[in-house]
Write a structure and sequence with these properties.
The protein has 12 helices and 15 strands. The strands form 5 sheets. It has a 7-stranded parallel sheet with strand order 3-2-1-4-5-7-12, sandwiched between helices. The relative contact order is 0.16.
Length: 344
């Protein structure tokens, strides 16, 4: 990957976010067949779909990339189709509509709900547990990579490398509990029917328009005091998380393979904001004191198996500061990473 010093605009950004890694290209060559992405219209889905198309083309594979979503914004559907992705409108909660979806030998599951869970917990549970059960029944013979979250671990002491895949889950709050429920449903169907599955516990993907670094840079630029109570975090360039999802396809197994998808650095909120302030020429102020624990994941297993990130945290900080100073586009969706109660 040719890493630029600055990201010019949204078109340049989306080209970078959809550039496949060598591991992703090799993976689609090995698994062959079509790639279906369920929940394609979310924050990561569009660039993952484009990456899958680019990876198949680079591998010389003629398979289709099929993006499935309700597509409440028609522009999203048209944008995907311009890049060679077939689209299908479907409410995944509707079992009859789900049954009519085309077959696909490779399925990437991205559907789910986080924000808005507090006060509407039943819908979150329906999306995060009932939909996976329906999908597993529809695609019993497919290979499935399912996105989950590092929230299933709960908080872990800082400075010890982060939660590992073999650690017992300890979810805090209904969102995290429902995500563990999602994992358990994929595990059940995988064990019962031999469906090969990989579960990806993501923590945290970022790009210029959205993510933890974008949140912090915006607060720094607005000269808001930075609360450091949730004092540490992991972050990974969204393109690297996308590439790892594709690269995980041939490793799917029964029972499921579980992988943490996280950057290698354990970053400090205080140090990160100080560096963002330096890059943007802004004085930074802080409030609170760092707690001894945070939501941290150890991604060593995934890096060894499906490829190391191509972009490090230092480069992400440089890009984020530059983008923020220039008033680059934002999705306007804060991550609420600072929540220590599991309420979203």
């Amino acid at each position: 990957m040719n890493v630029p010093t600055s990201i010019r605009d949204v078109s340049h950004l989306e080209d970078l976010l959809s550039e496949p890694s060598a591991a992703a290209i090799d993976a689609v060559r090995r698994v062959k067949g079509d790639v279906m992405i369920l929940g394609v219209a979310g924050k990561m889905g569009p660039t993952l779909a484009r990456m899958a198309r680019r990876a198949l083309d680079a591998a010389g594979i003629s398979g289709r990339v099929i993006g499935v979503s309700r597509f409440s914004a028609p522009d999203e559907q048209r944008a995907l189709e311009r890049h060679g992705i077939e689209t299908v409108r479907c409410d995944l909660l509707d079992a009859d509509s789900l049954a009519r979806l085309p077959d696909a030998s490779n399925v990437i599951f991205m559907a789910g709900r986080k924000f808005g869970s507090t006060g509407d917990e039943s819908y979150t549970w329906a999306m995060n547990t009932y939909v996976p059960a329906l999908v597993c029944q529809r695609y019993l013979t497919s290979r499935i990579v399912a996105f989950s979250t590092g929230n299933v671990y709960g908080l872990t002491p800082a400075g010890r490398g982060g939660s590992r895949e073999e650690d017992s889950p300890s979810p805090v709050g209904e969102y995290a509990m429902s995500c563990l429920g999602r994992e358990r449903l994929f595990e059940y169907f995988s064990r019962a029917h031999g469906t090969p599955v990989t579960i990806l516990r993501l923590n945290y993907a970022t790009e210029m328009r959205y993510g933890l670094l974008t949140d912090l840079a915006g607060r720094v630029l607005r000269r808001e005091p930075i609360d450091v109570t949730m004092g540490y975090f992991n972050v990974i360039w969204q393109a690297d998380a996308n590439a790892m999802a594709l690269a995980a396809l041939p490793h799917s197994s029964s029972p499921p393979l579980v992988l943490n998808v996280a950057g290698p650095e354990e970053l400090s909120v205080r140090a990160t904001c100080s560096e963002l302030g330096r890059l943007m020429g802004v004085e930074v102020s802080f409030t609170g004191d760092e707690a001894g624990d945070a939501l941290l994941s150890n991604g060593a297993r995934a890096r060894a198996l499906v490829g190391a990130p191509r972009v490090d945290a230092a480069q992400l900080l440089t890009w984020t500061a530059d983008w923020t100073l220039r008033g680059g586009a934002s999705l306007g969706k804060p991550t609420h990473f600072e929540s220590r109660t599991g309420s979203f």
